[in-house]
Design brief:
Blueprint lengths: L3 H4 L18 H79 L1 H19 L1
Helix pairs in contact: 2-3
């Protein structure tokens, strides 16, 4: 039977280690190591970029939320002022009506006040 050297005389067989595996070439290992280091550095740079982008997005989101909250608060304050003004107007009209009723019918107003006082006295006993 023919040996490997007989079939391909220009080809040499690689040296085998003690466990039977071939020894890798040091230059290709270095090239692969350098390539791997470059890839790791690129991944680190990409992660830094992604982190920076996410933090900026978060900052923009916080600013947007603050802006919306301020706008909502301003709207609520305006609505509160309007409601307070409306309530004051309503109470001043009721007060005017009560004063007018007392002026028109003073005896009825005094009798109503006495009746109300009596009811409150009975309730609080």
């Amino acid at each position: 039977m023919a040996d490997t050297a007989d079939m391909a005389p220009s080809r040499t067989t690689p040296r085998r280690a003690a466990n039977g595996a071939t020894r890798p070439r040091r230059a290709s290992v270095r090239a692969k190591g350098d390539d791997l280091e470059a890839q790791v550095e690129q991944l680190q740079a990409d992660l830094k970029s992604i982190t920076h982008t996410i933090s900026r997005m978060g900052e923009l989101g916080v600013d947007e939320v603050k802006s919306r909250a301020k706008s909502q608060a301003s709207n609520l304050v305006d609505r509160g002022k309007t409601a307070m003004s409306d309530a004051q107007d309503e109470f001043s009209q009721i007060e005017k009506q009560i004063k007018d009723t007392i002026r028109e019918k003073p005896l009825t107003a005094v009798a109503g006040a006495i009746a109300l006082g009596f009811v409150l006295a009975v309730i609080t006993r």
